[in-house]
């Protein structure tokens, strides 16, 4: 289950035992003060910055606290997942400790809740003293069928698969039961590595997982296992040299329209080598320039849409048949002649001919289809701009001024008008002019 609020998404669905097992501190307390924390100038990009810090009067500590007061940081709410505590209200708080700053942090993605709404949590926490020492780790292993576009469908449990659980002072080996489940109890608390052993024909997102579980807590580790079909090869230019950086797309043969279907994407390395993995069995088309959202300055743009083994006519593409967990290799993909480079040089002017200073330029490639999403650049103070292109590409280009909107945003009235410009690149240099008409 995924819960969301105003842009914040949480992978949810934990029990009190699981939440207790994975956090750093759990307590019942009341926020008595709050302060805003400015963003540090040298903030580490990997360090979560929480703009608000609440001071709590701690009534009862169940984990990680010895003091009667505690500071807990959180976001502002909404998109940053911050918890909107009310001063003077009683809460059950679950908090993580930042690995770098050591500060306690919480969010709406934990089981933190007002005390009166946390009866299940309170019942569990009050039972801790009567629970046997040690931790419980359980989970399940399920087989999934995943199409090339990534949509998963569960096909049932995987019984009799081996998992290795390594603690700080313990190592256990266990096999899944007929329902694909496993469970170990009485383990010493601390850090664990859980590894699912799979044959080469099967794979999972992360076979080895690391968790930390507090004493008397629980942890759930689940695995979704898919077929590990593999396909690899080398993509070359017409001269047999590596086509480094080219984006390759693998599409289901019967669903190869990029506007309505997703394929699997990989970039060739500097030697032109490419490799796809975790593929379901099926029949595929391998191509370049078949992605839904073409990007500017992508080396793939130097080539027309091309299908394996090196044809531009889709009806002549070779269909690749992949069996369950099969490993196919040595696919040599020869690309056709490179397109010649070109430059689109443009100028944005008002309808009286004067330049539009620092105009905003939106453009997108529509050679094969309209992706519906623009790329953006800015014109200079004389209204000039350039776009790198290749002969054979087609673009839609639009412009706007940077005048601030003057009017009631609830009753939008346009300030200017401009017609999108369609440019078919046919020459080494294409010169265009975009005219913006002032309406007010």
Written description of the protein model:
- The structure is a single chain.
- The chain contains two helices and 34 strands.
- The chain has about 450 residues and is mainly β.
- It folds into four domains: about 1-130, OB fold (Dihydrolipoamide Acetyltransferase, E2P) (Beta Barrel); about 135-225, Immunoglobulin-like (Sandwich); about 230-335, Immunoglobulins (Immunoglobulin-like); about 340-440, Carboxypeptidase-like, regulatory domain (Immunoglobulin-like), CATH 2.60.40.
- About 30% of the residues are buried.
- Mean pLDDT is about 90; it is low at about 1-5.
Number of DSSP helical runs: 2
What is the CATH topology classification name of the largest domain?
Answer: OB fold (Dihydrolipoamide Acetyltransferase, E2P)
Distance between the termini: 50 Å
Total number of strands:
34
Low-pLDDT residue intervals, each spanning 5 or more residues? 1-6
Major sheet attributes: 6 strands, mixed
- Helix fraction, binned, reads under 10%
Q: Would you tell me the overall average pLDDT? A: 92
Classify the secondary structure makeup into a structural class: mainly beta
- The CATH architecture of the largest domain would be Beta Barrel
Radius of gyration: 29 Å
CATH class division of the largest domain? Mainly Beta
Number of domains: 4
How much of the sequence lies in strands comes to: over 45%
Overall shape: it is: flat
